[in-house]
Amino acid sequence: MVDRDAPIPEAELHAYVDGELPADRRGAVEAWLTAHPQDAARVAAWRAQADLINARYADVAQEPIPPQLDLDRLGRIDRRRPLLAIAAVVAAFVLGGVAGWFGRDTWAGGISGMRMFTADAIDAHKLYVVEVRHPVEVAGSEQAHLVQWLSKRLGYEVRAPDLGAMGLKLIGGRLLPGASGAGAALLMYEGPSGERFTIYCARSQSPESALRYREAGAVAAFYWVDDNKGFVVSGPADRDRLLGVAQSVYDQENAPTDKTRG
Amino acid sequence: MSAFRNSVQAAIPALRRYARALTRDAEIADDLVQDTLVRALRSEHLFHEGDMRSWLYTILTNLNRNRLRTLARRPTLASIEEEDPPGASGPDTGARDIERALATLVGDQRAALLLVVLEGLSYREVAEVQGVPIGTVMSRLARARAQLRAYLDGERPPIRRVK
After folding, report:
1. Are the CB atoms for B103 and B79 separated by under 8 Å?
2. Which of chain B's ends, N or C, has fewer CB atoms near its CB within 10 Å?
3. Domain count, chain B
């Protein structure tokens, strides 16, 4: 038997499966498939793949949306930094060569980098909060010295937020190697029943992010990236309390200082 | 809520579905969606016209590409993350097979295929999302389908075993 019609290019077979084929070509493609079982098998296999993918993932869209993705909350976190947000957008466009839509090829680092950053911070938290005699290098009673020392060693302003309103007192802090050896600050706070929280702060190349929550057994952490600095606030796995502490740290980090005002 | 917010809100279920299939990890997927939403809220003034869903898919697709780039720089962690739990051959073999098969695809091919078959985007829309000509979308699609077929038909790469 000889095919009188021209062979159907593969692109048309895909277009046929995906409903992108012009109506006047459908007949020709269907006739071709009837006569060519190998191509018919290919088309059937592609459809079966699509069915498998849909069977596996379509239900995700029916799941309730987790609170992490609540727009009001995300918007609230974002509104606090209007100037910085605009600066980030401008920078993204400059770096991305105005490639078109915002968000294209501009964000180095990213989620995975932040994951490892947080893991380092939680490790440091677990290692030092159990220390009875030497939890810190410099005690909280020498707060001015502590902050000055860490700022000098790290090359940016380190603050020790006042968490008195949360019932937490600064025990002190220490200098750590940090992820890339660039150094990290670890500040430790203690609550009325001896529970301890830490703030881990280091340079980060990850893009700015909203407040995120991670739980690792009995320890949990909120973390975020802001102005090239990553912050991880770790403590006992009590989400609400930890969120209050993290918010307070976040607010105080972003409060204007004489330096930023001038 | 503004019209802008409403249409972002309406897209969240589809974004989660797409992200889950792209990453095959619920936690990473929702982190990606969260970053996408934060970017979108921040850049409301940049969204003038056009399709909200395509715009959000674009942001998410790019964020994921950057994520994969970071993983590529850390090969050991990447392979751990992609590895399936040992003894994984439960009743849900079909679902696991398709997950594994998707994992073997190159990132841009996987994204093109999922945007078409799972999210129902047209070739033209996928071309916009990926920032490439339609011809490139079609060749990504063709390669993805050929690769999936080979994998599902049993030409699997040997699974590494740790003794």
Report:
1. no
2. C
3. 2
